[in-house]
């Protein structure tokens, strides 16, 4: 009996080819697009919907028709609002820089979609992520690097659970982006040359502060730019406008290049300093999720990434408490940002990760 797989289709080339590859392997494939937009007008849905907007639905529907597979749109508006948008706004209000794609992956694209897919008799869900799933000799599942470092997306997937991984397929991880586009062209998919989605799907203009203000109804509260020792430099527009490492848009006539080095929500202060002040050896992280192993004992040497486009660097990690990990890099790293993810690698495999404090 053929295994049934629900493919999350964003209307892009990666998920479209994922559906094709799985059908070619003999799976019973069902295409699904997750409806996550809220109550915007149709024009806003069209332009701001990102990977799940109206244009994505139409593209995915046409691809499913070309592949001759069933296609559905499933409503995940409530889950997306509570697990992603609420979280995103609250993090900014507390002076942290969130990663909504990681939250969406764990709680919407996997937790909610997997549950709904199991209810309709699916054995697996699948996505177009550039990553691979591996069952290790210790019996645990892990995410491992895709064959192409240029598009590796393991960083955004570190938070998936063992149960989720056991029911997930990622066929695109075995190919480069160029190979995926070539497959799409070969089989005549109309999305073969469609550009990748870049923006956060619910903040397409990149103005996070305005989104937070409108979404929460809480006005940005002006405060002071200060030096590390508390000397007031001038006024700022509100902490939601800033992130660690930021240089542009500060509006400070400092006469030299200055950066945001710290955000202090308790006092509504934004600390300004020189680039050298952004470099540190050590960080701590909580909200931990372990993947290739159930945990860490003693000290452990790893490769660690502190943001999506960070190349990774050698580090030593140790547990400080049950849900608190300390990571010390061999060389100082720039802009360790509270709210972003720390992801640990053991070779190709994701060992685990957490949220930077």
Low-confidence stretches: 45-50
Q: What does the main sheet amount to?
A: 6 strands, antiparallel, barrel
* Count of alpha and pi helical runs: 8
In N-to-C order, the SSE pattern is EHEHHEHHEEEHEHHEEEEEEEEEE
DSSP strand count: 17
What portion of residues belong to β-strands? 25-35%
Give the structural class. Answer: alpha/beta
Q: Can you tell me the overall shape?
A: globular
Distance between the terminal alpha carbons, to the nearest Å? Answer: 48 Å
Explain what the structure shows:
- It is a single chain.
- By secondary structure, the chain is an alpha/beta fold.
- 26% of the residues lie in helices and 30% in strands.
- The protein has 8 helices and 17 strands.
- It has helices spanning 13-24, 42-48, 54-67, 77-93, 100-119, 162-166, 177-186, 208-216, and strands at residues 4-8, 28-35, 71-75, 124-126, 131-135, 141-145, 168-169, 223-226, 232-236, 259-264, 269-273, 279-290, 299-305, 313-321, 324-334, 341-346, 349-356.
- It has a 6-stranded antiparallel barrel with strand order 12-15-14-13-16-17. It has a 5-stranded parallel beta sheet with strand order 3-2-1-4-7, with helices on both faces. A 4-stranded mixed beta sheet has the order 9-8-11-10, with no helix packed on it.
- Strand 8 (223-226) and strand 9 (232-236) form a beta hairpin.
- It starts with a strand and ends with a strand.
Descriptors:
26% helix; alpha/beta; 357 residues; 8 helices; six-stranded antiparallel barrel
Tell me the layout of helices and strands.
Blueprint (H helix, E strand, L loop, with lengths): L3 E5 L4 H12 L3 E8 L6 H7 L5 H14 L3 E5 L1 H17 L6 H20 L4 E3 L4 E5 L5 E5 L16 H5 L1 E2 L7 H10 L21 H9 L6 E4 L5 E5 L22 E6 L4 E5 L5 E12 L8 E7 L7 E9 L2 E11 L6 E6 L2 E8 L1
Parallel strand pairs: 1-2, 1-4, 2-3, 4-7, 8-11
Antiparallel strand pairs: 5-6, 8-9, 10-11, 12-15, 12-17, 13-14, 13-16, 14-15, 16-17
Helix pairs in contact: 1-7, 4-5, 4-8
């Amino acid at each position: 009996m053929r295994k049934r797989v629900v493919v999350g289709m964003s209307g892009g080339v990666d998920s479209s080819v994922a559906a094709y590859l799985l059908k070619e392997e003999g799976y019973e494939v069902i295409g699904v697009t997750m409806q996550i937009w809220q109550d915007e007008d149709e024009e806003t849905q069209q332009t701001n919907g990102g990977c799940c907007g109206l244009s994505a639905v139409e593209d995915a529907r046409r691809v499913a028709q070309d592949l001759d597979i069933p296609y559905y749109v499933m409503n995940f508006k409530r889950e997306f609002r509570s697990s992603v948008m609420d979280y995103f706004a609250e993090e900014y209000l507390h002076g942290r820089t969130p990663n909504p794609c990681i939250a969406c992956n764990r709680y919407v694209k996997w937790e909610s979609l997997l549950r709904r897919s199991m209810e309709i008799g699916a054995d697996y869900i699948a996505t177009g992520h550039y990553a691979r799933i591996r069952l290790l000799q210790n019996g645990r599942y892990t995410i491992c690097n895709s064959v192409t470092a240029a598009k590796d997306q393991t960083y955004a997937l570190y938070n998936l659970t063992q149960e989720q991984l056991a029911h997930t397929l990622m066929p695109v991880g075995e190919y480069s982006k160029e190979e995926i586009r070539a497959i799409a062209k070969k089989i005549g998919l109309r999305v073969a040359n469609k550009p990748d989605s870049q923006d956060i799907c619910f903040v397409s203009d990149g103005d996070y502060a305005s989104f937070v203000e409108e979404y929460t109804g809480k006005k940005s509260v002006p405060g002071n730019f200060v030096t590390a020792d508390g000397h007031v430099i001038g006024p700022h527009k509100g902490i939601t406008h800033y992130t660690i490492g930021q240089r542009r848009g500060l509006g400070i006539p400092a006469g030299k290049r200055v950066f945001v080095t710290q955000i202090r929500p308790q006092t509504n202060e934004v600390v300004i300093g020189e680039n050298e002040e952004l470099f540190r050896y050590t960080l701590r992280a909580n909200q931990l999720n372990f993947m290739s192993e159930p945990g860490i004992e003693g000290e452990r040497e790893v490769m660690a990434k502190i943001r999506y486009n960070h190349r990774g660097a050698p580090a030593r990690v140790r547990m400080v408490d049950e849900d608190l990990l300390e990571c010390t890099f061999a060389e100082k790293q720039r802009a360790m940002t509270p709210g972003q993810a720390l992801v640990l690698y053991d070779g190709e495999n994701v060992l685990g990760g957490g949220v930077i404090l």
